Amino acid sequence: MDVTRKNVDLSRATRLLNHGPVTVITSAHGGRSNVMAAAWSMPLDFDPPKIVVVIDSRTLTRQLIEASGVFGLQLPSVGFARQTLAVGSNTGEGLDKFAAFELETFPGQKIDVPMLVGCVTWMECKVIPDASQRHDLFIGEVVAAYADSRVYTDNRWHFDDPDLRTCHYVAGGTFFATGEAFEVEPAPRAAQA
């Protein structure tokens, strides 16, 4: 299936994570690359756009990110959940996860990291050096963001195809698909006392 990746305005990039989905992190340095799932990520700031992700100090992904200073953050769809579980359940030490799980990639726009076909959004991030890394937190400035136009256009999600919904990881191989959208009218402002 032909996927059209459309750039997302960087001032709106953090909207891609606002609903709390599981993410997949890609990294590369010195001829090695790796991919891992990360359930703990969130938007941090708008201008410039920043995200936070937790990456354990014992992982190959962590080593590669610390060496390169960059990483890719992608949102997998329901149709990519099996691969998400696989890359999150296996170590990259001694295993080429891209080959083992037949993951198709394409090059990043602004960073030298493989990005995953099969996801619905992609963010390319540069690490902002910070003392929080000793707590396994990485702050990344989003330098490029793009999304599958079948699910994200005009700064809005639209999940018409159930297989293209983002997902949320719980534990033990259990995921939840992002649910139905609904809107409410804002409450009137309360009178100031």
UniProtKB/TrEMBL annotation:
Its cofactor is FMN. The keyword Flavoprotein applies. Gene3D superfamilies: Electron Transport, Fmn-binding Protein, Chain A. InterPro entries: Flavin_Rdtase-like_dom, Flavoredoxin, Split_barrel_FMN-bd. Residues 15-154 form the Flavin reductase like domain. It comes from the Bacteria. The keyword Flavoprotein applies. Keywords: Flavoprotein. One of its GO terms (molecular function) is oxidoreductase activity, acting on the CH-NH group of donors, NAD or NADP as acceptor. It holds the Pfam family Flavin_Reduct. Belongs to the flavoredoxin family. This is NADH-FMN oxidoreductase RutF, flavin reductase (DIM6/NTAB) family.
